[in-house]
Specification:
Blueprint (H helix, E strand, L loop, with lengths): L1 H43 L5 H16 L6 H8 L7 H12 L7 H4 L4 H18 L8 H10 L4 H20 L8 E2 L9 H25 L3 H8 L4 E2 L16 E3 L4 E3 H23 L2 H9 L15 H11 L1
Parallel strand pairs: 1-2
Antiparallel strand pairs: 3-4
Helix pairs in contact: 2-6, 3-4, 4-8, 6-7, 6-8, 8-9, 9-10, 9-11, 10-11, 11-12
Length: 321
């Protein structure tokens, strides 16, 4: 009986001690989670001085009225809104408006820091807030403060930056011959293969994405090849050699809908490749067409799912084996 009572007492003490240890462990886990959460929120927040915030909103309004950033009046207005924090944004927008080789300088092609990427996203969201007819516009200040205070996927931020400057590259390529130019992607400060792919896909879309779609509808294969001859290199090779797309696909928010990033952007690259391959097969040497096909993602079945031409590509691949 006594032994049983002692046993019960020991069990009670042991149970109490276990509960105490569990409480300590739970508290440590909670504090660790709270610390991580606080760290994440702190990193997500961008604090601006009032002048920076007001000028950023003003820049966003100017951009929304003139997304091509064109004209002396636009440049002078942007110049007047400079602050040390907004200088690079002002320089980039003015370079976009010029549409000359200034936009190819490393200071514009290299990855901006995380804070600046958020500021570019403010510009985007204020623009969309002003132009989306499906939604009731909110005050620009409300939109800006919302973006500055929340966590945003860094991939969206980076993609948005290169989209905002793509107009300058597209304008430049209307007349410029860039076949001597080389985009050295590894020197531009990207953190991983996803970021490198985002840069590459944006550059190709700016150069010939929309252009080739129009020329294909016009059945102007000669003009397609004229632009192909003027394209720059990427890491010292023709663009079609670039195949580093083995990152995880992710949701991407465009103007008013969410879609697969790869379906939108790798799908666009496939359209460009098909346009060049078809034009080359028709008008140039068979070996040139084979170089494009066998060295590009036209011959990579794992990426076919990202294009609406997947059935045709699979059929061509099966025949090529």
């Amino acid at each position: 009986m006594l032994a049983a009572m002692l046993g019960d007492t020991a069990n009670i003490k042991l149970t109490a001690r276990n509960k105490h240890f569990k409480h300590i462990i739970m508290m440590k886990q909670f504090l660790t989670f709270l610390l991580l959460l606080t760290t994440t929120l702190t990193k997500a927040q961008v604090k601006l001085e009032r002048t920076d915030l007001n000028n950023l909103i003003a820049i966003s309004e100017l951009y929304s009225h003139n997304t091509n950033a064109s004209g002396d009046k636009f440049a002078k207005s942007i110049d007047s809104l400079r602050t040390p924090k907004l200088n690079h944004i002002a320089d980039a927008l003015i370079a976009v408006g010029k549409g000359d080789k200034t936009i190819l300088e490393t200071r514009f092609l290299a990855r901006p820091n995380d804070e600046e990427l958020v500021l570019w996203y403010v510009i985007r969201e204020i623009h969309y807030n002003r132009t989306n007819e499906k939604l009731t516009p909110r005050p620009d200040t409300v939109v800006a403060n919302e973006i500055l205070s929340k966590k945003i996927d860094s991939r969206w931020l980076l993609d948005n930056y290169y989209y905002r400057i793509h107009g300058g590259i597209a304008s430049l390529f209307n007349d410029a011959n860039l076949n001597k130019y080389n985009f050295t992607i590894d020197s531009l400060g990207f953190k991983d293969e996803t970021e490198k792919a985002i840069f590459f896909l944006n550059m190709m879309d700016a150069l010939v994405g929309g252009r080739f779609k129009v020329l294909q509808m016009m059945k102007n294969n000669k003009k397609i090849l004229d632009f192909c001859d003027k394209l720059p290199k990427f890491n010292g090779k023709e663009y079609f050699y670039y195949k580093n797309f083995d990152y995880d696909d992710f949701d991407w928010i465009g103007y008013d809908k969410t879609e697969s990033y790869n379906e939108r952007h790798i799908g666009g690259l496939y359209s460009t490749l098909i346009a060049q391959f078809s034009a080359t097969a028709e008008l140039r040497d068979k070996k040139d067409a084979q170089e494009i096909y066998f060295n590009s993602i036209l011959h990579e079945p794992k990426y076919f799912k990202f294009t609406q031409s997947k059935d045709d590509l699979q059929s061509l691949y099966d025949k090529s084996k």
